[in-house]
Design brief:
Layout (H helix, E strand, L loop, with lengths): L22 E9 L2 E9 L8 E12 L6 H7 L1 E2 L3 E5 L3 H15 L14 E4 L14 H9 L17 E2 L2 E2 L1 E11 L2 E12 L7 E2 L2 E2 L1 H7 L2 H7 L6 E8 L5 H9 L1 H7 L9 E8 L4 E2 L18 H21 L3 E2 L5 E2 L2 H5 L3
Parallel strand pairs: 5-6, 13-14
Antiparallel strand pairs: 1-2, 2-5, 3-4, 3-14, 3-15, 7-8, 9-10, 10-13, 11-12, 16-17
Helix pairs in contact: 2-3, 7-8
């Protein structure tokens, strides 16, 4: 395992759930040609429709099919947990999020406003028979119920069928602690890693691309010469009191961590970062009082920006090193990076 990224300390789990209240759950489908799943990030244990959290997203490169970004950009809050899945399952998972909200809030879309589902995707079609649309609404519900502070990383949940740098990608997470005027704040990151060409790979500052490319088979090398068609979804959580505008600035710094791994945000890549804060919640109805929160001054955000970049890079490293080899559709196989390069 490479040395930890950067100079900031990590939280006790070195994961997004080091931010108090945040939990993560998976539902993994792994049977023959079906290699896919769902991952759910809950910002708190309550009802996200009633008690929204401030959030913002940045589209680094927009080759993607996510749901919910327009209203998120306008209102700056999350109304549901964040769901990750494969490209063709976005609609199913969004429907499951709506049904979950209606089950808890029976007047949703009637006397209450409609809910804004939030689903991000990457294309896992190399390993997964994406045309089967195997993910069901029940799979979302199971991932939601499974959400906990301890969770698996690698080829699990939405990451089951994902590829990075022509090897196995998937779910990775990390955290960093940033000091601001004598107080510690946590930035935690979770990535769905499905991007990168072999010669681009930089792992913890080591340029391993040529070494990786030389180890791949002729077929894999020919595939690697094609245009970038991958994606990455980056979700950052923090307990720092930030508003939606500041969270957008924090999300932008995830791009610095992504670039350190060798990514150039290729034409066919869907690269999206979202940041949310757990420091306060926003009530759903105007008759409920708004929180009185003192936000951090913009001039104090640099350590949080550092934490965002470092935890993003670290999360990608974890995704690459914790993913097992997977064989899926039509015998397609993605070996684990550690297997190809004999890393330990």
């Amino acid at each position: 395992m490479p040395a930890p990224i950067g100079f900031l300390p990590s939280g006790p789990r070195d994961s997004i759930t080091d931010v108090a209240g945040v939990t993560v759950g998976h539902r993994t489908l792994a049977a023959g040609a079906v290699q896919t799943g769902v991952t759910v990030i809950r910002p708190h244990a309550g009802d996200a429709f009633r008690d929204k959290v401030p959030a913002a997203a940045v589209v680094i490169n927009g080759f993607g099919k996510s749901v919910g970004l327009v209203q998120l950009a306008e209102l700056g809050v999350l109304e549901t947990p964040i769901a990750l899945t494969n490209t063709f399952s976005v609609g199913t998972v969004a429907t499951a999020q709506i049904r979950a909200c209606v089950a808890t809030n029976a007047q949703t879309g009637r006397s209450l406003p409609t809910v804004n589902p939030l689903v991000f995707e990457c294309n896992d079609g190399w390993l997964n028979d994406i045309q089967r649309m195997a993910v069901t609404e029940a799979d979302y519900r199971l991932a939601l119920v499974a959400a906990a502070r301890e969770f698996a990383q690698g080829a699990v949940g939405a990451g089951r069928g994902m590829s990075s740098f022509q090897v196995k990608g998937g779910i990775g997470s990390a955290s960093r602690i940033a000091a601001v005027q004598g107080r510690d704040y946590t930035v935690g990151t979770l990535v769905l890693s499905n991007y990168g060409k072999p010669r681009q790979l930089v792992l913890a500052g080591q340029a391993l691309g040529d070494r990786l490319a030389a180890k791949l088979s002729d077929a894999e090398s020919a595939e690697a010469d094609q245009a970038e068609k991958g994606s990455i979804i980056i979700v950052l959580a923090t307990d720092a009191p930030l508003d939606a505008r500041q969270l957008r600035r924090l999300a932008q710094r995830a791009g610095a961590g992504l670039a350190r791994t060798g990514s150039v945000f290729g034409h066919g890549s869907g690269d999206i970062a979202l940041a949310f804060s757990t420091a306060y919640t926003v009530p759903d109805r105007p008759e409920r009082p708004m929180p009185a929160v003192a936000m951090l001054h913009d001039g104090l955000l640099d350590s949080l920006f550092q934490a965002a970049a470092d935890s993003t890079e670290q999360a990608i490293v974890h995704a690459l090193l914790r993913a097992e080899s997977v064989t899926g559709r039509d015998g397609h196989r993605r070996p684990a990076l550690a297997e190809v390069l004999a890393l330990s």
